[in-house]
Design brief:
- The structure holds 2 protein chains of 2 kinds.
- By secondary structure, chain A is α+β, with helices and mostly antiparallel strands.
- Chain A is built from 8 helices and 12 strands.
- The radius of gyration of chain A is 52 Å and the shape is rod-shaped.
- Chain B is α/β, with parallel strands linked by helices.
- In chain B, about 35% of the residues lie in helices and about 20% in strands.
- Chain B is built from 8 helices and 12 strands.
- In chain B, strand 3, helix 3 and strand 4 form a beta-alpha-beta unit.
- In chain B, helix 1 crosses helix 5, helix 2 packs parallel to helix 3 and helix 6 packs across helix 7.
- Classes of the chains: A alpha+beta, B alpha/beta.
- At the A-B interface, helix 5, helix 6 and helix 7 of A face helix 4 and helix 8 of B.
């Protein structure tokens, strides 16, 4: 059988637990009261018995029979016992049929089992008893049966019944109501979460605005959903960009091949068409390769390729590599700063990253401009700076340029895939470096902050 | 004697293209489609060079290379891989591969690299390289075409030395970049071409028969004028 939903809520379990604790506390309280009350009663009885025996002996009454009769009058509950016995324990007067066993008439209180004569019958009664010697040598005993504690027990049970049971039931009802409210709340959240999982990412979990625990939790989850939605839209944006960057060259490939097949008048014409096609496919492959490389770099530790690398050596190799191309374009390429800086890294990747920066700088610098590479030692880091005299990057775009496929409007028409700086950023991160576009008077200055290990 | 090449590649279409390309260079090409088949054939040691795909059914490509190397077989191996992992190349070479090529690749790149692996290393005692009218003095670091001194820069000297050591073979941009600059990445721009252009203007002066030729937009070839 399935239990109702609310029983499994933690609220209901807490209520059950609290009720149990409450009941236990009440029981302990009643028990203590009972104990205290009954021992107080017994003390009163004991004092009265002792006092009576003492005063009877002191008064030295002659007619004990009358004394006892008076004492035993007015006892509807049949709890009073009294008797006079000869020194050898024969009963002389009173309602005690025999001398109690294990009893000494020493003026102290004893627990005894007394035989009570009641209309010719003898009844055993548990009693508190006190006895003493009379002047004439007889023994005088008074006792009281404590069966009359029963009313006290009963009243205690009454207290429990009329006080505790309704309170417990009330607590359980409250528990059920609270639990059902919790269950309803969770059900609401559950339904909304289901919708979100179905793809309605703009939906949010219901909040009551009461700032209770649930609201706080819901706020946290909603904030998380906001972030996820934002990331998803970013991913979708990147996905659209990838599709666009692949479709453009592939469309050209398709057109080139189609025209080549239909219109080529000679083998050379066809070859030219196919060559254009291969070029377009290479471009598309370049996009996917670069994306895969960035993804792999962002995931990975590339321990295998790491070693001691001299940044200075890499920079001179890059300058030497790019010098002719820069010269052809009419751009001056300078290197300055310190000549050597050894740190741990991957030489191939650092070469690729720095050459990307230099490549970009030369690409965006107009004829007659300058590209300067500088390696500086700072207090804790090494700083690599690539500065050009090109159009620069507007301040609001300076972080965005390191994102995949980001292209500012100015560079939209320039050759390149919009992935170069993203690759630089990924390589920098892999090395624990930071790359940023710095403030500069003119042109663009990119800084790579390297931590030499 | 014909040169024997073993191609271990699981994709039949890729394998077909590789086999056709290498056969057109006059090689006798065998194809193994699975790791176990490849391992058995490679273990025979009767091939002059082989290409091994990184990901294969049954036995991994790198395990094949490690296995034959531990058996003392020195056949040069070109590892082919479609994996995007960054240190894949390092692992490929550590396992005993001699060269490494990432898919997708141009077929001319593949055959150029197979050619390069087949070329026996030059006699290290050589001090002068000669191709046709071209002389390269390895001690004095000078180059001459007949009697004309070329006046080349150190990097151009290295380029020319590599071309002359691979006379009659296609060398690709990527190969030049790796062998001359010793860095490993794919320069997207025409950087190597610019350097090559400068060297070419010095080697092939106006009116002389050209010795440096461009090949299919991918590489270069140095050849004595006929």
């Amino acid at each position: 059988m399935r239990l109702p939903e609310f029983i499994r809520t933690s609220t209901f379990r807490w209520t059950l637990g609290m009720s149990a604790v409450f009941v236990a506390a009440a029981l302990v309280l009643v028990a203590v009261i009972y104990q205290e009350t009954s021992s107080e009663n017994q003390g009163r009885i004991d004092r009265a018995l002792t006092q009576e025996v003492r005063s009877t002996i002191a008064d030295d009454i002659g007619n004990t029979q009358l004394h006892i009769d008076v004492r035993l009058l007015d006892d509807p509950a049949r709890v009073r016992l009294a008797g006079v016995f000869t020194p050898d324990h024969k009963p002389l007067a009173g309602n005690m049929a025999s001398y109690p066993r294990d009893f000494e008439p020493d003026g102290k209180v004893w627990n005894v089992t007394a035989e009570r004569s009641e209309g010719g019958r003898v009844i055993n009664q548990d009693a508190r008893a006190v006895g003493g010697m009379l002047k004439n040598g007889n023994i005088y005993i008074v006792a009281r049966n404590f069966a009359d504690q029963a009313p006290l027990q009963q009243s205690m049970f009454h207290i429990l019944a009329i006080g505790l049971a309704p309170a417990t039931i009330l607590a359980l009802i409250c528990g059920v109501i609270l639990s059902m409210r919790t269950a309803r709340r969770i059900e609401g959240i559950h339904q909304m979460a289901g919708r979100i999982m179905q793809g309605y990412l703009h939906e949010r979990l219901p909040s009551r605005g009461t700032r209770d625990d649930f609201d706080k939790l819901v706020d946290i989850i909603n904030a998380m959903l906001n972030q996820i939605e934002h990331l998803m839209s970013e991913v979708k944006g990147v996905g659209d960009d990838i599709a666009h960057d692949l479709r453009t060259p592939l469309t050209r490939v398709r057109a080139s091949l189609e025209r080549g097949r239909d219109n080529a008048g000679s083998l050379d014409d066809l070859r030219r068409a196919v060559d254009k096609g291969i070029m377009g496919i290479d471009q598309a492959l370049g996009v996917t390769t670069a994306l895969l490389r960035i993804a792999a770099l962002e995931q990975g530790q590339r321990s295998a390729g790491f070693g001691d690398v001299d940044l200075g050596t890499i920079i001179s190799a890059i300058v030497e590599l790019y010098e002719p191309a820069a010269e052809d374009k009419g751009v001056t390429l300078n290197a300055g700063g310190i000549a050597h800086m050894v740190l741990r890294g991957d030489a191939d990747l650092l070469f690729e990253a720095i050459s990307n920066l230099v490549d970009n700088a030369i690409k965006f610098t107009p004829r007659g401009g300058t590209v300067a590479i500088e390696l500086v030692r700072t207090e804790h880091n090494a700083l690599l700076r690539v500065a050009d005299t090109g159009p620069g990057i507007p301040v609001p775009e300076r972080e965005a340029v390191f994102r995949r496929f980001y292209r500012s409007d100015k560079s939209r028409n320039a050759a390149g895939m919009g992935l170069g700086l993203a690759l630089v950023a990924a390589i920098s991160r892999l090395h624990g470096f930071r790359v940023q576009v710095a403030d500069s008077q003119q042109g663009c200055t990119v800084e790579m902050i390297c931590n030499p290990a | 004697m014909t040169t024997r090449v073993l191609v271990i590649e699981d994709d039949p279409e890729t394998a077909g293209e590789i086999v056709a390309e290498l056969s057109s260079h006059g090689f006798e090409v065998d194809w193994a489609a699975t790791g176990n088949d490849g391992l058995a054939r490679a273990g025979s040691g009767t091939y002059d060079v082989m290409t091994v795909d990184r990901l294969l059914p049954e036995v991994d490509g790198l395990s094949i290379v490690e296995n034959i190397r531990s058996n003392g077989i020195k056949t040069p191996v070109l590892v082919l891989s479609a994996l995007a992992e960054v240190d894949d190349r390092v692992r490929g070479l550590k396992a005993g591969g001699d060269d490494y090529l990432t898919k997708p690749f141009a077929l001319v790149e593949l055959s150029a690299r197979v050619d390069a692996l087949l070329r026996r290393p030059a006699d290290p005692r050589e001090t002068v390289l000669r191709v046709g009218p071209l002389t390269l003095d390895l001690i004095e670091r000078t180059a001459k075409r007949l009697t004309r001194a070329l006046g080349i820069l150190p990097r151009e000297f290295q380029l020319l030395e590599y071309l002359m050591r691979h006379t009659g073979q296609v060398v690709t941009r990527a190969m030049l970049f790796e062998e001359v600059w010793h860095y490993r990445f794919d320069p997207r721009t025409n950087l190597v071409d610019v350097h090559m252009g400068r060297l070419r203007r010095k080697v092939d002066a106006a009116g002389e028969a050209p010795m440096i030729h461009s090949v299919r937009g991918t590489g270069f070839l140095l050849r004595a004028p006929s």
